[in-house]
Amino acid sequence: MTDPGDIDAAWLPSAAFRAVGSRRVLVRAGEGPQAGTVHSELAEACARFGGRVVPDGADADLVLAPADVDGLGDEGFTFERRGGTTTVTASGQRGLLYGLFHVVRLGEDAFTGERAREVHRPALATRMLDHWDNVAVHPVMGQVERGYAGGSLFWADGRARGDLDRVRAYGRLLAACGINAVAVNNVNVHATEAHLLTDRIGEVAAIADVLRPYGIRTHLSVTFAAPVVLGGLPTADPLDEAVRTWWAEATRRVYEAIGDFGGYVVKADSEGQPGPFAYGRSHADGANLLAAALEPYGGTVHWRAFVYDHRQDWRDRSTDRARAAYDHFTPLDGRFAPNAVLQVKHGPMDFQVREPVSPLIGAMPRTRLAVEVQATQEYTGQQRHVCWLGPMWSEALRFRPDGSVSAGRLADGLVAVSNAGDDPFWTGHPLAQANLYTFGRLAWDPAADPRAVLDEWIALTHPGAPERLVDGLHAVLDGSWSTYEKYTAPLGVGFMVQPGHHYGPSVDGYEYSPWGTYHFADRDGVGVDRSAATGTGYAAQYAKPWSEVYESPETCPDELLLFFHHVSYGHVLHSGKTVIQHIYDTHFEGVEEAEEARRVWEGLADLVEPARHARVAERFEEQVRCAREWRDQVNSYFLRKSGVPDGRGRTVY
Ligand code: BDP
């Protein structure tokens, strides 16, 4: 059973350091913040487990040392084991830090047998978490917008926390799964938070100081209207000289406070946030304004592509919300500065349990892109339901816009909206930690098998766990995304959630609102016609072969059918079932699977630390209740709309 004191340590409980800490370790990490971390981690592990940090020249079981290896970059490292010595080399201290955590992950395996030299380096340069944290508690959204893990890790009582120990522990967890960037405030920048950029930058600097030793650069969400709301200028027009000067000066001061500041995150002209459209300027003009201010210091602007009009109904094909990001941004390809990164949600809508990959990814070859996913489970059970998102993210990362199978690079970065908060288990649902960990590891290596990453998380978090616990955890997590999909909105149609907070079912909750999130169910059929021939034309935003695959209901994958097509209830899927029978069956199955997962968890009570077991058990009660509610609402709704009875006689009017 895990030591209760280790709950806070998540996937870095002290026992995870046993193999490293019981060895003779020689470390030449040099000087600097991350080198300091390498030294202190090793010293602490050795003190705990009886190993020794030995001086240069002495015999050692583990050597960590600098080396000049071509192409490693400052985060890569090499790993090998020969003649009884395990050696990690890197060209910089960051690489040594990642190398150390690699050895920790391997445990005893790192000290067994011989291993030829392996080169490890991150596939993506930016591996980032965006925190949607408000400094002040927002009257509607609370402190953390779409946060399901308590309050903010960074902010309390209207300012940066005085005690940043937990931020330090967080930084350590993030480094151990490869994350190297954090944005510390909400993309919706409210009045209080706007000041973090100027008179309150010292608070951001205090957080940056604590994250730096873990190789994490701090970023800030800023409002495009900052020159007006903070600088008192009459305009925020990106082409106005005074505006440019204001940003240059504000940014100079930011770097005075935080020398390695990562840059800005901007949500502009979206859901009420100000942006360049107000001045008749393009989003490239907007992004380049901030890019120019950051450029002298090596900073980056992450400019979000989540731009759509949320106050329109479905008037004509051009108002399909799925089209918006592509329509807005593809004409601007090639016009963004080299240090501007367009941050694109992985799907065209908004973090639904099933969406196609955004056609914008792959359509902007001359623009740097980062893909954004949502670890916080806004639409996937809000950390009351277990929903491990590894397979979903992996599918998105493996998608090739041109249908090829090559692992060509799609983006420079991967960003997740963080699911962590000041909750004792970090993520509200203790098992949601697996999402955070998997995100970091997939950002390091998007080609990794997510199930292997899950097993890695299980092993690290529960060192020495008996097989029954390992298997039980795997059973509960693996497949949980598919279970969630089964009992919620069917076949890629999305939403059907309660408006506002987005938890629980409401089939028509958004059906007649201006947000553009419709399912178009009537007595004859359901789904959104996004074909080029008869629908919104969204399918044509893809390159071949996908434009053709999605265009026809005959070739469209079942799981996306209702995203792309409006079909009759009797339409037969590739699975051989009709759409209506699929809806009935999956909703029954989804509930049964959730009940089964709850049963598996109950059976692990003797192996899991009681507080953690109780927290998960309580969440399972809610998940099963909510899954039944989804099943009953969705099935009754479609029974009544279609008049087609359940072939297995389970649903009644
Ligand atoms: C939506 C959330 C909203 C966010 C928005 C965004 O409901 O709270 O502000 O995304 O990404 O999913 O900006």
From TrEMBL:
The record ties this protein, via Gene3D superfamilies, to: Alpha-glucuronidase, C-terminal domain, Glycosidases
Q: Name one Pfam family in it.
A: Glyco_hydro_67M
This protein's record includes keyword Hydrolase: yes
Q: Which residues form a coiled coil?
A: none
The Glycosyl hydrolase family 67 C-terminal domain sits at 427-650
Keywords attached to this entry = Hydrolase
The Glycosyl hydrolase family 67 catalytic domain extends over 117-400
Q: Does the keyword DNA repair apply?
A: no
Q: Which GO terms describe its cellular component?
A: extracellular region
- A Gene Ontology molecular function term of the record: alpha-glucuronidase activity
* Gene Ontology BP term (one): xylan catabolic process
- What's the name of the protein? Alpha-glucuronidase
